[in-house]
Design goal:
The protein is about 80% helix and about 0% strand. It has about 450 residues and is mainly alpha-helical. The longest helix has about 35 residues.
Length: about 450
């Protein structure tokens, strides 16, 4: 190979890695602006102020359930037929259109169903993207650097979400007079952030389709159920990997609750305004990104498995601190510290599998890894929504609130709901155990 060809190959490798990470920028920004910090809060506080949290929880749970059903089927076809990018482009298109249409959700309860339907489609598309996106990881990384590329991808995604949130805050939320003739009385400045989210996803997803190559077909299987059985059998040949995937299902359920309700929790419990929620979102995304980078270093030093265990311990400890925060100041402090340990859990989980999976089956196992993580992800939001709905109508909770705070506290229902996340972390940690897979 000539020197020029060698340089071109290196450049192509860099472009592929950069494009892969940039896709996470688009995906993460949609999650932050729609599902967690802006539209979710707008829906629960303005569009459906009475039972908005429960409506949102059931919608998020239903979307996760459909991902669990469709993921194995669509992921199996995409993996075996080497059409991951094609399927990814379809769900990206659905996500872009769904978010842009959420601009039409006006601040009254006649738009509840419109908001829920297109929010469902946005969340569904955003989750399905990861089925195909993760399956492309072996196309941009070798086994030697897959953990580092995984960590960088998560970190870049968090930092990219920060940029998107800063733009939303500086241009749409903070100015006394909304830009582009938007009417604040109709919440148009908040609704416009969903147009920003849709366009952001479109722009930052495009490089992947140009510079990331499609991997080879994982097998010659054509029936989805055969693909699932073959993948599960291959995973069973790696000691402890099945147990790890089950543990991951559980603690990812906890993360799903955090991502779905963090903004709503802040608004309902501590009275955060949209601006306050955005500032908190920016700060938390920063600590998550820093955590992902630091976690990559610990991953190399201590191993992926130990990094996950340590991170879960601190997520449990500081998760309880967030739940019991008496004031917004404590919530800020404990929330930011908690964010430091979210990034390492996500990055090290993907890294652990990358080290264990044999090269000839890596794409198949990575696809199964992502699919398995969605099988029970509907449980967290469903349980959260049910607890909040029950707690808001419970005399027991009202009496407990009076005992703890000296007066009735309508926010105790939200606190009770967020316990769901910590419980999933605890059970996931227990199932994970002490023995490293492999």
């Amino acid at each position: 190979m000539s020197e020029s060809e060698n340089n071109l190959e290196k450049e192509g490798g860099f472009l592929a890695k950069a494009s892969y990470s940039l896709f996470d920028v688009g995906n993460s920004a949609v999650g932050a602006m729609h599902a967690t910090f802006i539209f979710a809060v707008y829906f629960a506080s303005v569009v459906a102020p009475e039972n908005g949290t429960s409506y949102w929880g059931y919608t998020t749970g239903l979307a996760a359930f459909v991902v669990a059903v469709l993921g194995p089927i669509l992921g199996g076809f995409a993996d075996t037929r080497a059409r991951r990018k094609l399927y990814l482009s379809i769900v990206v298109f659905i996500g872009v259109v769904a978010n842009i249409l959420l601009w039409r959700v006006e601040p009254n309860n006649s738009f509840i169903w419109f908001a829920l339907i297109f929010s469902f489609l946005s969340i569904l598309a955003n989750e399905l993207m990861f089925v195909f996106y993760n399956a492309l990881l072996p196309s941009v990384a070798s086994k030697k650097n897959m953990g580092r590329i995984s960590g960088i991808g998560w970190a870049v995604g968090y930092f990219g979400a920060i940029v998107a949130l800063v733009i939303a805050l500086a241009i749409f939320i903070m100015p006394e007079k909304a830009p582009f003739g938007l009417d604040k009385d109709s919440s148009e400045h908040i609704r416009a952030t969903q147009i920003l989210a849709g366009l952001w996803l479109l722009i930052f997803s495009l490089p992947l389709f140009f510079f990331v190559k499609e991997g080879k077909a994982a097998s010659n299987l054509s029936k989805p159920w055969e693909i699932i059985k073959a993948g599960w059998k291959e995973i069973g040949q790696i000691p402890g990997l099945r147990k790890f995937l089950i543990a991951r299902m559980l603690y990812v359920d906890g993360l799903t609750v955090v991502f779905a309700f963090a903004g709503i929790f802040a608004a309902k419990v501590f009275g955060f305004s949209t601006q306050d929620v955005l500032l908190f979102a920016i700060a938390v995304n920063f600590t998550c990104g820093v955590g992902a980078l630091i976690g990559g270093w610990f991953d190399d030093k201590l191993g992926s498995f130990n990094t996950i265990r340590i991170s879960l311990i601190f997520l449990i400890i500081f998760g309880f601190c967030v739940l019991l925060s008496p004031t917004a100041t404590y919530f800020w402090i404990f929330g930011l510290v908690t964010g430091i340990f979210i990034g390492p859990v996500q990055s090290a989980s993907r890294s652990l599998v990358s080290h264990l999976a044999p090269a000839e089956h890596r794409a198949q196992i990575f696809g199964f890894y992502m699919l398995a993580g969605k099988i029970t992800s509907f449980l967290g939001p469903m349980v959260y929504a049910t607890i909040v709905l029950w707690a808001t109508q419970s005399t027991l909770i009202e009496n407990l609130s009076f005992y703890l705070f000296g007066e009735g506290d309508s926010t105790l229902g939200e606190r009770a709901g967020m316990v769901t996340a910590v419980l999933f972390f605890i059970v996931g940690f227990i199932v994970l155990g002490r023995k490293k897979p492999g």
